[in-house]
Amino acid sequence: MPEKNNDKQFFSVGKIFFLLVVIPLSLMAILIANGIFKVGDMARQGAMTVLDQKAQEEIKTRAISVAEEVASFLKEREKDVLVATIIPPTEGAYKDFMAKNMGALWVKKDGQIVRVLEPLYTEMAFIDNSGNETIRISAGKVVPKANLKNVANPAGTTYKSEDYFAKAKALARGEVYVSQPTGLYVNKQDFAKGKRFEGVIRFTTPVFDKSGVSGVVELALDVRHLMRFTDNVIPTQSGYVLEADAATGNYAFMANNRGFIISHPNDFHIAGQNADGTPVAPLTAENQAAATKRGEEVLDLNQLAFMDPNLPAIAKDAAAGNAGMKQYKFAGREKFVAYAPIKYYASSYPKPAGFGWVGMGVDVGKYNEFASVAAKKIQSETKAWTTTIVIIIIVSVILLFLIMALLTRGISRSIASEVPAGSESIVFDDDED
Question: Is position 141 within any domain?
């Protein structure tokens, strides 16, 4: 009989415990687990869309920022050449001017990437009204009189095709002529051997005295100081690199106002001249096979519709002074590019195209791989949390049942201890007097 009573008490307490504790706890666990699963699923899906959109906007913002930096840099160089008009045209004054105008470049030194100061200008010259150089400082040294040139004829210039003297002489006081980046072309084979594009951007302006124009002053900006704005950055990463790797598809570049590439991790895409001063022809649908075989892959985006119609569309939109984002195909890859105009204007770089534009490209396939990895990680963590909760609930229920059993047995023992021995055999008869 006592054992039957104990069993009845155990099951009675068990029913109450099950109704008041186990069922609510189980329902709560199911709701929590379901909620975590849904949130995890939303986060997983978001990794493929929200993160992607955020990354695109961040890359676009960075492109705009770099384009603004380039424009400011070019404006400073314009000020330099205007300052040069009031400097006495002497060898000492010009050498001192060049020595004071330095810029930082990233180089590899002792196995580390460090910033070093290098002269901004490779050359400074004063040219008389006939086109004769009367002073020229090159690489920090005075050029002997016997080696001075007449640059009135483009054939007599360094790259056999430059017309900066005639363009500058026709300007009014305070106006500046800025050339296109000019240098000898570097083909694909030479680039693979370590050769890099070297060239200049000429800043020239007329010099006036009491009688009028007395000549032209010229500064040759080392293009490395322009190219550093894109060569040393990776769109999706902070910090700087010595040279971005174009093979990753994740790099920045720069195009001029005509759509030609003027800065790129692969220097064989940069527009350049032959030794005789003629420009190397850009890739077209007609010459692609022959040019590629020669290692000549100059890119003019306006002529790359045969690769993807979006390429000339990007160049056209940027030349209209717009920033934007587009996807296109290049070399068999799906690419995303954010672009922004370089708002520097001069007589040779009129509005709205200005100097050109900055592009920041990302390989879409590789980017999606990164997003997929993030999504899988979120999914894995969601499953882990859900599994953990289920295990906790099961263990908790088992422990609660054990506790219930112990409590029930404790209650039974307490009742039994309070009943006097033998009293359970006493029977009361209500009919007895």
Answer: yes
